[in-house]
Amino acid sequence: MPKQFDLAVIGAGPGGYIAAIRAAQLGMTVACIDAWSTSEGKPAPGGTCTNVGCIPSKALLQSSEHYEHAKLHFGEHGIEVKGVNLKLDKLVGRKDTVVQQNNDGILYLFKKNKVTFFHGTGAFSGQVDGGWSLKVSGASEEEIIAKHVVVATGSSPRQLPGLEFDEETVLSNDGALRLPEVPKKLGVIGGGVIGLELGSVWRRLGAEVTVLEAMPEFLAVADQQVAKEALKAFTKQGLKIQTGVKINDVKAGSKGVTLKYADSAGADQKLEVEKLIVSIGRVPNVQGLNAEAVGLKLDERGFIAVDDDCRTNLPNVWAVGDVVRGPMLAHKAEEEGVAVAERISGQHGHVNFDTIPSVIYTSPEIAWVGKNEQQLKKEGVAYKSGSFPFMANGRARALGDTTGFVKILADAKTDEVLGVHIIGPTASELIAEAVTIMEFRGAAEDIARICHAHPTLSEAVKEAALAVDKRTLNF
Ligand SMILES: Cc1cc2nc3c(=O)[nH]c(=O)nc-3n(C[C@H](O)[C@H](O)[C@H](O)COP(=O)(O)OP(=O)(O)OC[C@H]3O[C@@H](n4cnc5c(N)ncnc54)[C@H](O)[C@@H]3O)c2cc1C
Fold this sequence. Notes:
The protein is of the alpha/beta class and 475 residues long.
């Protein structure tokens, strides 16, 4: 007799494990199936985010930033450090420990919340009395039945056509997070979030890094004033960034990779690197689900087709996270996971897609929420803008990190905040205030009138809000 559940979640990334835990907290019997394994074959729940994404990349960014500070910036604080040495195996080992702590944390939460975890691949067998029958293929095979199913199978790195990832020379995010040595020369195809973060890690550790981006503009998704400031900062740090390139040929061999491409002026160029990171986007994981056989509909881009509430075309089958439309972000997946669990239990789960923040954890950090200037202009929205540089912020000067600014865009008539764009120290944390204000549909004046502790970087947010109405306190 197959085990029966109110809900089965396929995938234990941030979309899946959060949905499973929330559903269990709401009183459902829940199964969560995940295929990810450690190198020893043990379960490693947490998905891309925990194993080869958000968490390990931030661990390496932190360690490499410490290394760069010790080498280049401690002197500014009057601290002399001699003989700064890099122990890459230890640095990468620390990252692995952080990942494992997160894997263990999720298994603990499953236990605590009575979520039954299955280590293996989950696939639809068909519709049966009482819901959906699912086959779990792991160390052994098992059939389970669930009234509701949430598909949260995530995404995988997109390959450059004809160039397979070998994770030795041609690297996806996976291989790029565990290089055994710092390459002398590293190429990165794709100047998006992942390419910039991983490129920054290896540049700080000593690699000469060239980033090749196909789009004519650098960071086209960001506010272009922010993108320009970022390009200036990254170039000063030594990242070689070329935009508007067209890759014509890539040959990978045992010694490295040779790239032939046309630069933005159309001139032929050649680049030889030891290692190449390909970060040109990600594709949804729909294979192996037996989706076709049960009639699960995909959209024209191969994602599972869902409505605004994450309902698929099949009864009681839902999908969340990277495998469906929308930004490929862990917190977006989590929000959808919670909302779906609440909807299944009869509540009114809600995700506000207009207030999902985006963050790039480079140095300086970049974060934004809402509309940027290009978008507002295109939409013909009348807006006003205020900005404030970290150069004029006392805490930033004390930190010794004054790059960047805060920029606030507000409706010209109502003063409602329409977008906030930050480049600078701890932008990833500062953006939370902007998200809160926008969630409550607050005005720039609301930020300006809220008491901000002194001296803090958050005063730059307040100053930018004051500048929207051409007022300034200038701490
Ligand atoms: C290098 C890198 C850095 C990133 N940094 C950030 C960041 O800082 N902030 C941020 O918000 N986002 C970041 N992301 C994106 C983030 O990782 C994803 O948006 C997030 O993991 C998506 O969550 P998910 O639950 O939809 O899918 P995933 O995390 O991909 O999890 C899906 C899980 O389902 C499993 N699975 C797939 N098919 C099956 C099956 N048939 N049966 C059983 N299990 C299956 C997979 O093995 C996996 O464990 C980063 C991504 C990368 C690659």
